[in-house]
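Subject: sequence -> structure tokens, single chain

Hey, anyone have a minute? Need the predicted structure for the following. Not urgent.
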Amino acid sequence: MRHAIPIDAGRRRFHRHLLAGAAGALLTACGAEQPSAPVAPASPVAGGTGGTRTTGGGAPGEGIDWVAIDPPQPGESPGRIEVLEFFSYGCVHCANFNPLIGAWEHALPADVAFRRVPVTFGRAAWRNLARLYYTLDSLGELARLDQAVFDAIHTRREPLNSEAEITAWAARNGIDAQRFAAQFDGFAMQSRIARADQLARDYRVEGVPLLTIDGRYAVVGRQARRLEDLLIIADDLIARVRAARG
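Reply:
Had a minute. Here:
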């Protein structure tokens, strides 16, 4: 018999506080075929079937709240539980999720390593946005401008599709154009994009935002009604991995 793995009550209170203004939001995802279409927030990572949604209290349900990643994927954070967020600046649902997962990340315990992976889904515009993410990271500007990118695209409707548009936006936001271009077009950038694309293939990502836990579980939340539910499921799965490790 499976037993529920409790999450710290403080974490649950944190989630309730985090989503005070977003309760009741329907979950959607940007898919590989139609990036702005409202589709189920799931990835076709191989997993179990059945299960009962239990994010209100018990252990998360396989096939409803999460699916198993088959085969399990290796992480890059030895000794820690690695959480990946697959996302794109071009995805409106990632934009809605970003402030929530940012606050959640800062409250994670020390044994959890969080990493974001920008997806391209083979689109030139999303590839440029992935390059923008890695450029901001390399220049130490990610903390200052990460949310600003989402706001520019989805609130102010600024076109950030081409390299010229993105470089001009960066300059307007205080980044030297030459420094920006050196990172945006650098050799290391090609390697980072290739690695991100490979991870998306390995995890069989078809929709974003998508959270994966320890290379073993993908959060799908097929019956979730609040963005908070994805984070609660992730916390449950982190606790499951921690308990299995002893």
